Amino acid sequence: MKKLIIASTSTVHNSGYLEYILPRLTSFFEGVKTILFIPYARPGGISYDAYTAIASKGFETIGIQVSGIHEYNDAQEAIANAEGIFTGGGNTFELVNQLYKNNILESLSKAVLTGTLYLGTSAGSNICGVTMMNTNDMPIVYPPSFTTLGFIPFNINAHYLDPDPTSKHMGETRETRIKEYHVFNNTPVLGLREGSWLEVMGDTITLKGNLSARLFQPGKEAKELDSESVINL
Questions:
Q1: pTM tops 0.90
Q2: Protease as a keyword (predicted)?
Q3: Cα–Cα distance list, 94 to 1, 28, 58, 100, 168 (Å)
Q4: Could you say which architecture CATH assigns to the domain 3-225?
């Protein structure tokens, strides 16, 4: 049975890395001693080693060690042997590019679908959807495909922002851009606000955190989903 936490972000305002979600991660990863970290998204262009060190510091408070997938000679074997897997945020285009380049998309899918615990934040959450097409990131590289893991039957728009009524910015809102996406695509999109996450237990997908999420479906009005809602599509 697949078991995932798909979080909008790793860090909320006035909080440390993963701090807001650590109580849930403590129980989610209970019994896990080491997590395999996938640092390919490289926020700000930092090195894999530097990013793995950040993830390690986040998990050390709950007694879990972190190793970076780049430290292994055989990435597929590392995934197959992992107790838990964490894919961090950064640039989704580069993350997906590296997943294809290192030929581990299928290995990652197989591991999670057969029960390996998975945590994704931001870009690491975007790849849990049908495609990565609702990322907010700049296309700094061009991956072989936008198709991703499909653990959930919709796409994620992480860091979803509501329009600011006091802003003088007259450009497109996040909702406008998602509507543009639905002119050409039928996959539903979930706008996941900061501090919210999805828990996937088998086929059950539940919204967690203190905020609602915004569900967009082609040809329908956007719908607010309250925390603890079970998402059925």
A1: yes
A2: yes
A3: 29, 28, 23, 10, 32
A4: 3-Layer(aba) Sandwich (3.40)
